[in-house]
């Protein structure tokens, strides 16, 4: 039995959980989420507590039972967290002329390409963008904040946005996760100067 799987899940005030066979539906202030738990797992509810148990009626190896047990419990706990408190992902955009524009349910990014790159936001996902004051235009920076109740969906969207123009290793221009460390490399001019002094 998985140590993660056997831990009960407490439902905060305002959060409901409906169970129909392997289908689990969770609703709260931030939205609604549903999941179909893997075979070999049973989900039950006792008041404001949800319990995930192993269904021994199936002939599975103990290792398979444990993995599915822990996975199902983690997914349901994540859903409860999402509909009650929500999740957020923050991205930093840096570069001269780089800027985000929000139009309804669409996020448009100007990143120095011939045309802006647009993303249609999934239902339930909200976006906000603020400019971070810096010392000059060459260091223009913006902070993009994505919020929603679906952790996996939010993470996937953030990864797609970052991939459009990942921060380069020379000047750091591009998109990165907030707090992400980019190990910079010396530019061509710096490398040439170092070679000219014999590396001293």
Protein architecture, described:
By secondary structure, this protein is of the alpha+beta class. It has 2 domains: 9-84, Alpha-Beta Complex (Outer Surface Protein A, domain 3); 87-177, Alpha-Beta Complex (Outer Surface Protein A, domain 3). The protein has 3 helices and 13 strands; from the N terminus they run ββββββαββββββαβα. The protein has helices at residues 62-84, 151-164, 188-196, and strands at residues 9-10, 16-20, 23-28, 31-36, 41-46, 49-54, 87-94, 99-103, 106-110, 117-120, 126-132, 141-148, 174-177. The protein has a 4-stranded antiparallel beta sheet with strand order 11-12-7-13, covered by helices on one side. It has a 3-stranded antiparallel beta sheet with strand order 1-6-5. The protein is elongated and about 65 Å long. The relative contact order is 0.14. The mean pLDDT is 87.
In short:
The longest helix is centred in the middle third of the chain and has 23 residues, at 62-84. The protein is elongated.
Show unreliable segments: none
| Main sheet makeup | 4 strands, antiparallel
CATH topology description of the largest domain: Outer Surface Protein A, domain 3
Sheet-strand content, in percent, reads: 35-45%
Shape: elongated
* Number of contiguous helices: 3
Rg on CA atoms, Å: 23 Å
Please provide the ordered H/E string of secondary-structure elements: EEEEEEHEEEEEEHEH
CATH-defined architecture of the largest domain = Alpha-Beta Complex
Helix content: 10-25%
The structural class is: alpha+beta
- The structural domain count equals 2
Termini distance? 61 Å
Could you state the CATH homologous superfamily of the largest domain?
Ribosomal protein L6
Strand order of the largest sheet: 11-12-7-13
CATH class of the largest domain: Alpha Beta
Secondary structure tally: strands: 13
Please, what is the average pLDDT?
A: 87
